[in-house]
Amino acid sequence: MATAEPHPGESHGRTKGWRIRMVRPVNADRSPSVGIAGPDPSWHQLYRIGGISAWIFVAMIVAGIVLVGAAPRPPAAGGTATLNYIAAHRMLYIVNQQVWLVPGFFAMVTYLALYPALKGLNQSLAALGAVVGGSAWALSLAIPTTTEGAPALVYLSDQFMATADPARRVALATAAETLIAQNRTTVVVGPLMAVGMLIVSIVMLNGVFPKAVAYLGVATGVLGISAEALRMLFEGFYVFYGVLLPIWMGAVGWNLYRLGRSRGPGLVQNAPSPQGAEIVGKKVQ
Predict the structure, then answer these.
(1) Edge-to-edge strand ranges of the sheet holding 2-6
(2) Which end of the chain is more exposed for a tag (fewer CB within 10 A), N or C?
(3) Which value, in Å, is the radius of gyration of the alpha carbons in the chain?
(4) Rounded to 5°, angle at Cα 181 from 175 and 182
(5) Alpha helices in the chain (DSSP H)
(6) What is the pLDDT of residues 29-88, one digit of tens each?
(7) b/e string for 110-133 if b means 16 or more Cβ within 10 A?
């Protein structure tokens, strides 16, 4: 707030000059990050961790794709055939399952890092997108199934090969059929992953991340929702969704790591408000 005071030594009957002084505003003790439309620099370490996590996610997904292409294809249906296949390729099957499931943890960390990076643009949507996306990937660890099967099938296969009782074998094959059917059915986890990506990408359109990354995320999120909705009718969308997802995650990881490395491009500094500066000027007639 500006105040005008008579210059010292002046008579009250004649005005020769004024001294203008900016005093400290009443809300100067508020948090310096309030009102800053950009990433909070105090989270720079989380940005780096989130960026590295995104790259690990991409590396494991690529490894999973390579394994799928190199390994013998599992049976498309049939509990007995699936259990026999797992028994013949037990270690390869276990590694393949973990390569598809473990990335969920790193995706969860990346979404956690996206919240402080985007909250300056739209705190509500940033929180919603981070919670939805992060929770979806966390659920993928709590409900461990993949498009190639499930870790529980390894136990069923071991029991199936260890018993000679026909009735028990039928029961184990039926249990395997149940897990296979779950893999072919749309559940809440898949759509939530795509919805979380779509929400954070919409927030990215306002800044911090490059527009190309934001538009890629919007397109991939819409494609993912469509793939889940049409999963029982047409699985072709999953091919494109599966390719675009790691590309988007890799781009997000690169930009998060850049935010954590420096306070340069895209990272708004918490500079003090000009109203809080002590400015003394003099105007003399």
Answers:
(1) 2-6, 17-22, 280-284
(2) C
(3) 29
(4) 95
(5) 44-70, 79-88, 90-101, 103-118, 123-142, 152-162, 166-183, 189-204, 211-229, 237-261
(6) 434 444 445 677 888 899 999 999 999 999 999 988 888 777 787 777 777 888 888 888
(7) bbbbbbbbbbbbbeebbebbbbbb
Question: What is the Cα–Cα distance from 84 to 90, expressed in whole angstroms?
Answer: 10
CB atoms within 10 A of CB 138: 16
DSSP string over 165-210:
-HHHHHHHHHHHHHHHHHHTS--SHHHHHHHHHHHHHHHHTTSSS-
CA-to-CA distance for 82 and 89, rounded, in angstroms?
A: 11
CB 249 within 8 A of CB 54: yes
CA separation, residue 117 to residues 47, 114, 133 (Å)? 8, 5, 15
Close Cβ partners of 42 (under 8 Å, ≥ 6 residues apart): 33
Q: Which two tokens stand for residue 183?
A: 């893999």
User: How wide is the angle at C-alpha 176 spanned by C-alphas 172 and 181, nearest 5°?
Assistant: 150
pTM of the full structure: 0.72
Among candidates 15, 67, 21, which has minimal Cα distance to 275? 21
Phi, psi for 211 (deg, rounded to 5) = -60, -35
